[in-house]
Amino acid sequence: MTIYDIARMAGVSASTVSRVMNNREGISSRTRERVMEVIRNENFCASDTARSLSTQYSSTIGILVADIRNQHHIEGAYMIAQRFLPLGYCSLLLNTGYEKESMVECIRTLSTRRISGLVLIGSIFQNSEVEEALKSFVCDIPVVFQNGELDLPNLSSAVSRDDEGTADAVRFLYGKGRRTIAFVNNNDTPSNRKKMAGYRKAVSQLGLKSIIIPECEDSAEGGEKAAEKLIEAEPGVDGIIFSVDLIAAGGMRKLLSLGRRIPEDIAILGTDNSSCCTLTTPMLSSIDTRLPELSAACFDILKTEIGQKQGRKNVSFECRIVERQTT
Amino acid sequence: MTIYDIARMAGVSASTVSRVMNNREGISSRTRERVMEVIRNENFCASDTARSLSTQYSSTIGILVADIRNQHHIEGAYMIAQRFLPLGYCSLLLNTGYEKESMVECIRTLSTRRISGLVLIGSIFQNSEVEEALKSFVCDIPVVFQNGELDLPNLSSAVSRDDEGTADAVRFLYGKGRRTIAFVNNNDTPSNRKKMAGYRKAVSQLGLKSIIIPECEDSAEGGEKAAEKLIEAEPGVDGIIFSVDLIAAGGMRKLLSLGRRIPEDIAILGTDNSSCCTLTTPMLSSIDTRLPELSAACFDILKTEIGQKQGRKNVSFECRIVERQTT
DNA sequence: CTGTTAGCGCGTTCAC
DNA sequence: GTGAACGCGCTAACAG
């Protein structure tokens, strides 16, 4: 079923049908009604594919996420996709995985679809391979980067100041009387590097020892292993900051099973203030990295830039500590 | 940049470029090389939009989920999307929300994109409005339904036998000596109705009292409220089956804070065997509804049906009880 | 083995 | 107000 079929059935030309469907001016209300009638009867939907080809404009935006099952990222993807839907945009949500080649491949794929905007979620995309791919495949559409930065003329970004957040967390625990404060990191991402930098700066300013457990697996089990390793290496630890809430939850489980009391013996802080904070016992205090605000900013920027000439906005948000029962 | 530009630069015709890009036979290796060279230099990607229009075939599949943030469903969406990606298919993942009108609207939207296959995830889509929409908008492409059924010639389904699973759970708790076994339900979905039916059947067969807390909110907080209500109405309860793990986690939190011991005083069983089972203390036993197998089956069915004439397969999976520390 | 031609289903001038 | 004709970028049928 095409607009030609509708045209024939309504006794008009295809262009008239097209005008009606796009609410164009200058159609007599009689013929408009007649055409609408046929469209309704036939349950007709015009081909978006053909429209895209004709208008050079696709009404779909691309969203890149390393792994959609990851809670930190899915909330952002959800929010952005949901807000675009009523505006007539569908979202192509792609899992890139953690390999740089597949990120590039995904960008290439999206570019063949002629998306009208692109969202990158997660600092993992902050690398030169992705930068090159953006430059060669999607240089003519607006791109927004949630929690990462890249120096491209058509790229805007919204980031949280993770370094300050982690530094604040150290000072916060210090204020609670903790003097042996460790940091458990997972992947080596730009965002996590900022957290580590903030941690190092704060402990050195306070004259504390820097204790870092790097490359912890991003799961509750990874947190267990990290906690075990930490207790072995630093039995006197009395405060731990984890780069991810879920890892913190796993770490807590292990510490409790080892007989440590939380927060009496060891204070715990997670990062991201995610939904799992309220699932643990005791409930997990966390560094709120303002993910919802980041996503909202990405949406706002992209919305205003689509169809316009690309701008280059950069906004950042301050982290906040949300205290529950582990500190 | 189009294939015409490439053609001109390589000194050949557009169809030759098209043939090269689609790995067609019957091209001299000399011209193939020359064309490839230009394509590489220009970083050229052919427009998928134009290809779709020309071939009447879109290489994108649609995935419908009520809410992508919901853990039960995202795993399935992830698995299906990831397996289709290497086959050259992108996935349009849409959040429909819980309103029937918006589900219909999403199906309509997908149909304008000429998707080549559709996946429905969650029994919430098992209703007549969706059935009508499928019939009028996507009657010519294969549809697979994860955990739901609908009587359409082009629809296949993979479901878990939730009724048997819940009945087994009742008998399982009975075997552990429990005699006052309650069921906490959340939304009124076909799947949950099956669970309730299984619960009712089992308790009546065992001569137990039927205790149901309906319409619990789908969150940890909802679980807390439900537990509170339940303890008030039935102080002697010694076994609870929750329709969702997360709700069970919330319920446990409340019960523990009320001084109940788990599992000594009350045994707890969640449903779905999701990742939050290992986050709670004690770790949550759960009815495994075989979500990964369901998704895998959906993928397999859809893959074989795309491009073929639509079939109509129906597979079902047996639930299993995964015991941890709450039973 | 390669080029020419004719659609795919829309939106958009430009006449009438 | 409305219709005819063309173009969007690609594939496929037909020639040569």
Mind sketching the topology for me?
The structure is a homodimer of 327-residue chains.
Chain A: H1 3-10, H2 14-21, H3 29-42, H4 48-55, E1 60-65, H5 71-84, E2 90-95, H6 100-112, E3 117-121, H7 128-137, E4 143-146, E5 155-160, H8 162-175, E6 181-184, H9 190-206, E7 211-213, H10 220-233, E8 239-242, H11 245-257, E9 267-271, E10 285-288, H12 291-305, E11 314-317, E12 320-322
The structure holds a DNA duplex (16 and 16 nucleotides).
What does this structure look like?
The structure is a homodimer of 327-residue chains. Chain A is of the alpha/beta class and 327 residues long. Chain A folds into three domains: 3-46, lambda repressor-like DNA-binding domains (434 Repressor (Amino-terminal Domain), Orthogonal Bundle), CATH 1.10.260; 55-160 and 291-317, Response regulator (Rossmann fold, 3-Layer(aba) Sandwich); 162-288, Rossmann fold, CATH 3.40.50. Helix content of chain A is 45%, strand content 17%. Chain A has helices at 3-10, 14-21, 29-42, 48-55, 71-84, 100-112, 128-137, 162-175, 190-206, 220-233, 245-257, 291-305, and strands at 60-65, 90-95, 117-121, 143-146, 155-160, 181-184, 211-213, 239-242, 267-271, 285-288, 314-317, 320-322. In chain A, the strands form two sheets. A six-stranded parallel sheet of chain A has the order 2-1-3-4-5-11, with helices on both faces. Chain A has a six-stranded mixed sheet with strand order 7-6-8-9-10-12, with helices on both faces. The termini of chain A are far apart. The model of chain A has no long low-confidence stretch (mean pLDDT 95). The interface between A and B is large, with 45 and 46 residues. Chain B binds a DNA duplex (16 and 16 nucleotides) through helix 2 and helix 4.
